[in-house]
Amino acid sequence: MARIFSGIQPSGELHIGNYLGAVRNWVALQGTVDAIYCIVDYHAIIAAYEPSQLRERRREMALGLLAAGIDPEQASLFVQSDVPEHTELAWIFNTVAPLGELERQTQFKDKSQRMESVNAGLLNYPILQAADILLYRADRVPVGEDQLQHLELSRVIARRWNAQFSPETNFFPEPEAWLTPTRRIMGLDGQSKMSKSTGNTIGLLESPEEIWAKLRPAVTDPKRIRKTDPGTPEVCNIYHLHKAFSAPAVVDHVAHQCSTAGWGCLDCKKVLAESMETELVPIRRRAEMLRATPEAVNDALATGAARCRTLARETMRGVRDRMGFD
Ligand code: ADP
Fold it and tell me: Is the CB of 111 under 6 A from ligand 1?
């Protein structure tokens, strides 16, 4: 059975960009592959944070993922810091990762420009990510488009390590991305990708009122100034969200109403809010149930961590053996 691995940072709320780009796919794939999903808390500490807030966010992320449909019977869900081998393998990969490629990573360049003082963790982030994936020798990684460059670096790291320590057998597979049709969701500002760090998100567990308060002023086709101006659906973020949440017949209708100026943007947003509700109501309901039974969240994480620790130790035995640490 193919093995997949994917991670998410507990650096803020689970949002619809995470859901559409990755988590909806995680749910669809569980049961068909050996699925391992990780809350990557060591990644999240690269930016300044409050320890008590990290604890809370880790829990909320676990709850959100289970509410979104991750089933602990079909997938292993765990917290990265519960399996210390992630950082052990990351150190080892530091010694084969090419510095020039780390410096060329778009996310490093973008984020370091916005920081007053840049820590080495920001540069080395993709090395820890490579360790996360390769610790489980995963074949595929269901992620959004923003992770493609990091994933390419994981492949380089696997290749370099294999060349040096396992030239005959290629101990580590070169993992490939598993993208969804909704691989890049833009933020409601229409300026940049939806991301926890930019505050342009819609939370997966937000109430209908909160969602509407964000959708109402959200950016649409910038050329559509008056209601009577015909719009261009393909350039509108709201249309792309329709493609993610609405039935195909509704998407066609939306495109027609927009391009003929039959609807104003607010009409279009109201229909989107309804489509989102259809998908989000059961998720919200599951979240409420999980809040009432916190032990269900703890049990899921404990079971996932126990299994992943066993797998991680096995990989590290192979790594230590090949590198002369045995
Ligand atoms: P964030 O940028 O919100 O902190 P993470 O880095 O924790 O998100 O990424 C978790 C997963 O969600 C990754 O697979 C990532 O590719 C995906 N993802 C994040 N933002 C988006 C987006 N705007 N569109 C599509 N996928 C996304």
Answer: no
